[in-house]
TrEMBL record:
A Gene Ontology molecular function term of the record: transferase activity
Keyword DNA-binding: no
Any single Pfam family the record assigns to this protein: GGACT
Protein known as: Putative gamma-glutamylcyclotransferase
CDD domains: GGCT_like
């Protein structure tokens, strides 16, 4: 399209609906609303808002009168007029464009990326919220926390492929919808059910730490699986915290606890680890010898939702590992728990 043609289309679009935004609703007739609902499956409210946005966009797709005359008879038989036909063409282009762009960008490594989609629960946008929920994966990972004002905030955690599928589905229901989505990374959690892997300060490749080692068997209880705890999906589970998450208000916000359910820590110690600083400002836990110990706090995480929120907060720079937690206020009390260890290879000279 040359510059002159583009200018002519712009002028035609302005002339078609030369109204202010405040007056735009006057020009949306009941017949128009019913037509858009029938053709595109919109609710009355969505039809109204889509027509309003479409007519206010003077750069919208437009076809010439000559082009419309060529298809007019066939399209009017299907229920279209020129405006809705133009919208259908634009909508098809956007869906195809978004699909191609997303798929091209989604390389194999991007499947490891995670995205946080904000779920808005404003009562005034409940229809939008329900449409959004219908487009999400059937098996959803919903994270709950508190915002700066203490209000509940919900997010859905999506993989790279789930993000593409969600955007494609939403583009059909709400072509003007712009989701609030943040790329993030999640602390890995892959606890073996047949070995000690991963455990703070222990290399499970060494003979003394293998499952069939006689020393470990003697130290175990009658239930051999007790060696390999906590299990991957075991809840509640004790976590050992150091650094920013030793602040109860911070932990409460991360896992979505309100004032009626305050965080109550247990003073604790873990061994075979030591603290270092990441980028000169973040306390991080790394492996160390058997005589090393770290002081901190322990808290029992109640369910997977709380744990998922923790893993998102810590990001992929860390990984969840097993550790033995010694509760300082309970002599000889030891529990098998978890903590966040800096991913191997990220720690340089302190």
């Amino acid at each position: 399209m040359d510059l002159l043609a583009a200018c002519e289309d712009l002028a035609a679009n302005v002339a078609a609906f030369d109204v202010t935004e405040d007056d735009l609703y006057v020009y949306i007739s009941e017949d128009d609303l019913k037509m858009w609902q029938m053709l595109f499956g919109f609710s009355p409210g969505l039809a109204f808002n889509t027509i309003k946005a479409w007519r206010a966009d003077f750069t919208r797709l437009a076809i010439s009168e000559e082009a419309w005359l060529l298809v007019r008879e066939a399209k009017m038989a299907e229920g279209y007029n020129k405006e809705t036909y133009e919208f259908s063409l634009w909508r098809a282009q956007m869906i195809l464009k978004d699909s191609r762009t997303s798929i091209n960008k989604l390389e194999a490594k991007d499947e490891e990326a995670k995205y946080l989609l904000q779920l808005k629960t404003d009562p005034s946008s409940m229809i939008e919220y329900l449409d959004l929920m219908r487009c999400l994966p059937k098996k959803q990972t919903i994270l709950t926390g508190l915002d700066d004002h203490g209000n509940k905030a919900e997010f859905c955690l999506l993989t790279g492929s789930q993000k593409v599928e969600f955007l494609q589905a939403m583009s059909k229901k709400r072509p003007f919808y712009k989701p609030t989505m943040i790329r993030t990374s999640v602390a890995a959690k892959d606890l073996s059910s047949t070995s000690l892997y991963p455990t703070l300060g222990i290399s499970t490749t060494f003979p003394q730490f293998r499952p069939d080692n006689h020393h470990l068997e003697c130290a175990s209880t009658s239930d051999s699986t007790s060696l390999f705890r906590p299990a991957q999906n075991e809840y509640p589970v004790w976590y050992f915290f150091y650094g920013t998450l030793t602040d109860p208000s911070k932990l409460s916000r991360v896992i979505g606890l309100n004032k009626e359910h305050p965080v109550v820590y247990e003073r604790a110690i873990i061994r075979r680890g030591r603290l270092c600083t990441l980028d000169g400002k973040y306390l991080s836990l790394v492996d160390a010898g058997e005589h090393s110990k770290v002081d901190g706090w322990a808290y029992q995480i109640k369910n997977q939702d709380e744990e998922d929120s923790l893993r998102v907060y810590e990001t992929g720079v860390y990984e969840v590992v097993r550790c033995t937690i010694e509760l300082a206020n309970k002599p000889d009390a030891k529990v098998q728990g978890l903590t966040f260890r800096l991913v191997d290879g990220l720690f340089g000279p302190d």
